[in-house]
Description:
Layout: H1 2-13, E1 19-20, H2 33-42, H3 45-51, H4 61-73, E2 81-86, H5 89-100, E3 106-111, H6 115-123, E4 127-134, E5 137-138, H7 140-149, E6 156-159, H8 173-183, E7 189-193, E8 222-227, E9 239-244, H9 245-259, H10 264-275, H11 279-304, E10 310-311, E11 319-323, H12 330-340, E12 342-343, E13 345-346, E14 359-363, H13 372-393
Parallel strand pairs: 1-12, 3-4, 3-6, 6-7, 7-8
Antiparallel strand pairs: 2-9, 4-5, 8-9, 10-11, 11-14, 13-14
Amino acid sequence: MHSEDIKLLMKQSSKDGLISFAAGMPNNDLFPVKEIDEILSNLSDDIKKLCFQYGPTSGYPPLVKSLQKMMERKGLKLSTDKVLVTTGSLQAISIITQEFVNEGDVILAECPCFVGALSVFETYRAKIIGIPIDDQGIDIQALKEAIANLTQKPKFLYITPNFHNPAGIIYTEERRRALLEVLSGTDIILIEDDAYGDLYFDDKTAPLTRPIKAYKGYDVDIIYTGSFSKILGPGFRLGYMLSSQEIFEKAETIKQALDACTSNFMQILANEFIERGYLEPYLLFLRKEYSERYELLHSSLKKHLPKGVSWNVPKGGFYAWLKLPESINATSLFKDCLSQGVVFVTGRTFDPESRKDNHLRLSFSNMPKDSIEKGVFLLANVIKEHLKIKSLII
Length: 394
């Protein structure tokens, strides 16, 4: 079901002539083309030859070392855990699911939840239990009740605590610790998906992005996943996972059977990008660009949207999450917006049960700045028309 949503989403977001808030991807004009050109032109012949060759299943060793340094700076200790480089972080999620889940097993996930992960879980025929979130993070009481009421122990809980896709929230320190307290001693693995953690808008937010896996004093097995897709670009198809030695060894075996190894070419480029000192300046550039895009979106929403429509105020990432009046259905709204030349993603897409449909996700990351207000204006007019029709019916 959610795989079909993804296919439709990619098709709709790539049509010519549309103002698309649908695509959760970077803007083409922001990619580090100049830096990559410079790296390619200065590679030694021996390294260039390596680009065309197979590499270790676990990852190109220099990149693994670079990732270890990056994660140590985030507070993660690698004395016992190991890094596996994957073909995008979605492959990491898929490998973990294949490692632990049989048909009918229970997985806990946020509601709403990243649709790519939902698609993976459905592929392995898991039973997905959605746990609601609020602006602080996952609902702790709902999580406790779900665990207590289940006859099967969940294999894991999947979360995206930093600039959530689609809700845009970041977990508070209190909510992170409360979550760890609930999971401690339960043998329920926590999958911490951190694709957006480096894309905060303000330095004051940076401490909040500290990985949950870096917290000490809790009896919880945590698998941490990250990605270059939202930074260097999704075309790199580079992700990674950090897990215990035991989980790593089985995951490496699964990856070997899937694709033998992630592209050496892209791993070498990424490692050179890091080691030559390009990454941090580039992240500063991206934070400024995405912050500016969100501010344009926020001011446009305040200016044009009618009363009764609310939205979160993200502190980083790619997304704003709009809540519609109960009388409006997002799928119906989408169809009318499409005819007006503007698209978004409906909330139903991110519901594990594909039911709740009174939200919509607006992605500002891929938008040209000069199209943002026009897109919001068109969206607002369709919402106003739907509110008028409902009022007349009542």
